[in-house]
UniProtKB/TrEMBL annotation:
This is Spectinomycin 9-adenylyltransferase. It comes from Paenibacillus lignilyticus. InterPro entries: AadA/Aad9, AadA_C, NT_sf, Polymerase_NTP_transf_dom. Coiled coil: none annotated. It catalyses: spectinomycin + ATP = 9-O-adenylylspectinomycin + diphosphate.
Amino acid sequence: METDVYLHKITTMFQTVLKENLAGVYLHGSLAMGCFNPKKSDIDLLVVATDKLTGAQQKEIINRLLILHDDLPSGRGIELSILLEAHVQEFVHPSPFELHYSDDHRERYQTDEDYICGGFADDDLAAHLTVTYQRGITLYGRPIQEMFQPIDRSYYLQSILTDISSAAEDISDSPTYFTLNMCRVLMFLREDFVASKKEGGEWALQVLPLKFHPVLTYCLEDYNGITNEFVGNKEAFVAFADYMSNEINRWREL
């Protein structure tokens, strides 16, 4: 299914289920920032509701998302959170949400009809809201600059730093994820620019020492769906993580 057709279907689904309670549907992430890989990238959405969802609405949304998910090509997923309009107008950190859906929850939703991920607060929403405000696309509802408020820089930084907190231990197992995420964190600290993982990696190729270029090139190619074996070893990624941790800490202190 073409991505724009899928976005229309999911937006129509929210209009059908939430009716007048739907305040907006907004696209963020790689698709909004122009670096979407049709074979492996998730579709990232924020949905805004005027009033709290009922239990029946939550379950109907999950059931419809499971059906819509089956229309996606293998390797792609959906990640979305539903927030109350009051909470995006007057942001608090961590931000509460009404409902969350992602691949990490999909199996649980399929096997446990009573499971609902909602009614909690999520540190990651500071990053999602920042990307939406600065780089997002309105699919339904008021324009982004009218619906959302700017997020304090410190909350966004705290959120993206959480993504790389285990890089030193885990980069060998998930090299592309941690490498490119560390790049976009450093890019934000140095350039004050909210970047995608791909943009962070491309920027890093221009500014980081040449010895790290093989690591960066491999991760960018992997992110873009080019499967080449890395000519090196795990120590190269660990060395990169150590270097980047020091650089990130140094720039945080400036």
